[in-house]
Design a protein that fits this description.
The protein is α/β, with parallel strands linked by helices. 45% of the residues lie in helices and 14% in strands. It has a seven-stranded parallel sheet with strand order 4-3-2-1-5-6-7, with helices on both faces. It has a four-stranded mixed sheet with strand order 9-8-10-11, covered by helices on one side. β2, α2 and β3 form a beta-alpha-beta unit. α7 packs parallel to α11, α14 packs antiparallel against α15 and α14 packs parallel to α16. The longest helix has 22 residues. The model has no long low-confidence stretch (mean pLDDT 95).
Length: 362
């Protein structure tokens, strides 16, 4: 396989599955975590390695190191592997997604931004999602049509804090997810509920779904519900462990051995489902509208990426992330997108505007 984002949480778990099932890793793509990357190189012996920049490349213990976005695209082209695992974070993952699909490779996709910003133009016939919610939907569907898809959210670290106190919460507190261990960007997105908004858009594109929604389920043991035409509802239970969806995506079939322990129903805390409160999660105000106008995902993603970065640097407050994103959403309402070129132009414009806004707030 070609593994993009090998040192992140998804990448590390993908390598755990590769180790267990003795899968060959042809290419490793990482950022700046050279210490972990060098350990991965020593164990998996990739033919190609890519890192973020030239200075980082000089520290990598490998004789075939590329760097930057150009290096990622070149490595995808050079690699003979027919499977690309895209676990890159953010808009950076879009071009590799397009390159892999253009080359006819199978794409195991954890980079949700690819579909959030360009779902209207991406052929998803060769895409297998690496996401607990979308894996659950796929697992339950079995080519049946449904009335509604419902995915679950944990509620994040601020689900029980008085709303008036959330605005002053630190990045450290926002990163303290109650159920999952994830990277910084996705952890903040979970706290704001932006991540769940993105997953609804993914579900819309991946499953051609007209009716998708989300509810809070605090245990993170139920990942999705399907409501069928006959009035029945089916749920998918599984532990909070990304190795399960990753194993199916990498193997292309049901694993021959148990990946995660079965759920012990007697040990689960009370299961209840809660409505997502727009006052606690302001981004949810646009949930219905963006599902009706999904091409607006590029605006939300660009604004959110810059907002999250600014919050992590202490330049803006927690609620400012959503406020800035909502303002950009209003500003670009009625946006026309007809090509990938349009997407890259809008992304650039939104980032510039948000950057100016952040500087004023800072």
């Amino acid at each position: 396989m070609v593994l993009l984002g090998s040192t992140g949480s998804i990448g590390v778990n993908a390598l755990n599955i590769a180790r267990e099932f003795r899968l060959k890793v042809e290419t490793l793509v990482a950022g700046k975590n050279v210490a972990l990357l060098n350990k991965q190189i020593k164990e998996f012996h990739p033919k190609y390695v890519v890192v973020s920049d030239k200075n980082t490349a000089s520290l990598v213990e490998h004789n075939n190191v590329l760097y930057g976005e150009k290096g990622i695209l070149e490595a995808i082209n050079l690699s003979k592997s027919k499977l690309v695992v895209n676990a890159l974070v953010g808009f950076l993952g879009l071009k590799p997604t397009l390159e892999a699909l253009k080359l006819g490779k199978k794409l195991a996709l954890a980079n949700k931004e690819s579909l959030v910003v360009a779902g209207a133009f991406v052929d998803n016939s060769k895409i297998t999602p690496i996401d607990s919610e979308h894996f659950a939907i796929w697992y339950l569907l079995n080519d049946r049509s449904v009335d509604r898809i419902v995915i679950t959210a944990s509620g994040g670290p601020f689900r029980d804090i008085e709303i008036s106190k959330i605005k002053n919460q630190s990045a450290k507190n926002a990163l303290n997810h109650p159920n999952w261990k994830m990277g910084k960007k996705i952890s903040i997105d979970s706290a704001t509920m932006t991540n769940k908004l993105f997953e609804l858009l993914e579900a819309k594109w991946l499953f051609d779904a007209d009716s998708v929604d989300a509810v809070i389920e605090r245990n993170s043991v139920i990942h999705a519900f399907l409501e069928f035409h006959d009035g029945s509802t089916t749920a998918h239970f599984a532990g909070a462990d990304m190795r399960l969806p990753i194993s199916y995506a990498l193997l292309g079939k049901e694993p021959s051995s148990k990946i995660v322990p079965n759920i012990n129903l007697l040990k689960i805390n009370d299961i209840k489902f809660e409505k997502i409160d727009k006052s606690r999660y302001p981004i949810w105000q646009i949930k219905d509208d963006i599902l009706a106008h999904p091409k607006m995902g590029v605006v939300v993603n660009a604004a959110n990426e810059i907002g999250v970065e600014a919050f992590l640097k202490g330049k803006i407050g927690f609620f400012d992330i959503s406020k800035i994103t909502l303002d950009m959403y209003d500003k670009f309402m009625g946006l026309e997108l007809n090509s990938f070129e349009d997407i890259f132009e809008v992304d650039k414009e939104v980032r510039a505007l948000v950057g100016e806004r952040v500087e004023k707030l800072g």
